[in-house]
Amino acid sequence: MERDRQKDFTNYLYLQRVARKTRLAYLQSVKGLTTYFKQPADQLTNDQIQEYLLYCIRERKLAWATCNVIFSGLKRFYHGFLGRDNAGFSIPPRPRSHQLPMLLSRDEVNRILNAPDNLKHRALLAIIYGSGLRVSEAVSLRAEHIDSKRMLIRIEQSKGRKDRYTILSKGCLTLLREYWRTYQPGKWLFFAKDKNRPMPVETAQKIYTLTKRKAGVTRGRGIHTLRHCFASHALEDGVQLFIIKRWLGHTSIKTTCMYLHASPEMLLKVSSPLDSLMEEARA
Predict the structure, then answer these.
(1) Which stretch of DSSP H or E encloses residue 154?
(2) pTM beyond 0.85, yes or no
(3) Of 5-9, 33-37, 134-138, 149-153, which gets the smallest average pLDDT?
(4) Do 154 and 76 share a structural domain?
(5) Do both 197 and 257 map to the same domain?
(6) What are 209-229's pLDDT values in tens digits?
(7) Which residues pair with 170 in a beta bridge?
(8) Residue range of the domain that includes 255
């Protein structure tokens, strides 16, 4: 019975056109709940669900982002799939995280990009930083997505199931051409061991971690740091915020504005208004 319910929920998520990664996370959220109580999820009470959520926060001490995924998955299961009202399932409001991205200097990024001996790894990291890509977007690229005439990269059906174009740098194009001549990729620009399959996201993450260690860079987090650095460095170079928003594929300009607060170089270029007043007084 439980297996049938899981299958029905999976089909529901497919019909709702939930992205694969999100779908798997939601299924894992429900599975974690049933494993904790050793009961089918549709038989659990609201009090039991609250107990499990407290367990995730207090005992497991899960990060805010992880808890948010669990909360969202259970909400989709109980409210959306089972159709329970707030009396049958409710969770407290979740405060939003306002953590700024951890950025690297241009020198640190340059050391990372030049560290790999493997040409494939260099090309992968270069295109993620040079075009501000999500790692899932980079490993999904095909040759026809590279528009060398207009110096653009086409991103298809990314986050939010949206298509967009982003910038293609001259240096990256040169590297990609060298990579193409050497590796002769098939359908996927960055392929797995089997050329008919794209490189797994986990492999790309591992490449970045090992390369970062080789470059002697200790700051920053995962491979997504390169995307953050792209946005911050472009802003420092005077690129308009609206253009960066389009390149990154953000829905709201508020998301892109985060880089106004995150970039230390931007802060260093700004002087206090007191300095202006004192200069005027001396004049």
Answers:
(1) strand 152-155
(2) no
(3) 5-9
(4) no
(5) yes
(6) 999 999 999 988 899 999 999
(7) none
(8) 106-268
